[in-house]
Amino acid sequence: MLGTAALLAVLLSGLWVWRQLQPVNRHDSHPQYVKVQSGQSASSIARVLQKRGLIRSALVFRILSRTSHLSRSLESGVYRIRPSETPQQILQAMRTGEVVTIRVTIPEGYTVQQIITRLVAAHIGSSPATYLSLLQHPLPGMPAPAPGVRDPYEGYLFPATYKFAYGTTPAQALAIMWQTFERKVEPLYSKDRTSLSFVQWVTLASIVQREDKKPQEASGIAGVFVNRLVAGMPLQSDATVRYALDNSIRGPLTYTNLTVVSPYNTYLHKGLPPGPIANPGIVALKAALDPKAEPYLYFLALPDGRVLYATTYAQQLANIAYVNQHP
């Protein structure tokens, strides 16, 4: 049997260990950000946590990680840790990889400049100027920009909701969006499905995306543009003119707007513009691959999302008159 002194030593030791497993301050929920490097040992992490005042004992944290079989399975990344958390909670967060992320939603049809504005608002890059040099050089695998292309990245940053790791740089964010495009979009394209080149396909999809207000109309609008291309008619897409004007016009376009000198002005130039005018989503991309087979050469997109189609210019004028009479 243990003697009194030995028993007391065991009790005191147990009490000490129990105390080291408690939060440093249960009432302090102010977060600190701790970066765990890939391959960093539990011992090294423990020393950092103790130095930052986030755990009581680096020794106990290290022993706990080993007895829990977690010492070699801690995920790298930046963690948000509070003094009110226990070592067990901190270890669990690092085991499951609960790293700090920056959530950014990029809507379908956003331009590169709109995307950059959102990224900067999420503190990925200090200002739009931090992206200027990056945008001059396409990423590996991106289509080479044709003459007249304003932004080589336009069309190839996939619109989605992203969870960027804390500390993501502008270059990393752009690369992630391009890699998502490669993974989700490139497999859709097949020369057996369209006579358009890859760049032409994405360009057409971007125009459909900007013209369309309801997903169910995308295929019909794509059909009109394809028919006009086949007939040798100018596309006469207002969306391309707006892009030529840096999307600075909020209301209806004027005649002067339609005469803007730009390779993106499809009122002045037949065929597709030199490159995409936005970053299209999957629906628009699929519509550009599978346009509706109807004889329509004109459409009128209404504010409520409805689309009126016409085969002749006279029918188009009748649709315009109808809309003007029934605002």
Automatic annotation (TrEMBL):
Its EC number is 4.2.2.29. It catalyses: a peptidoglycan chain = a peptidoglycan chain with N-acetyl-1,6-anhydromuramyl-[peptide] at the reducing end + a peptidoglycan chain with N-acetylglucosamine at the non-reducing end. InterPro entries: MLTG-like. GO terms for molecular function: lyase activity. The keyword Coiled coil does not apply. Pfam families: YceG (PF02618). The record marks E211 as: Important for catalytic activity. Functions as a peptidoglycan terminase that cleaves nascent peptidoglycan strands endolytically to terminate their elongation. Belongs to the transglycosylase MltG family. PANTHER family: ENDOLYTIC MUREIN TRANSGLYCOSYLASE. HAMAP family: MltG. This is Endolytic murein transglycosylase. It comes from Sulfobacillus thermotolerans. The gene is mltG.
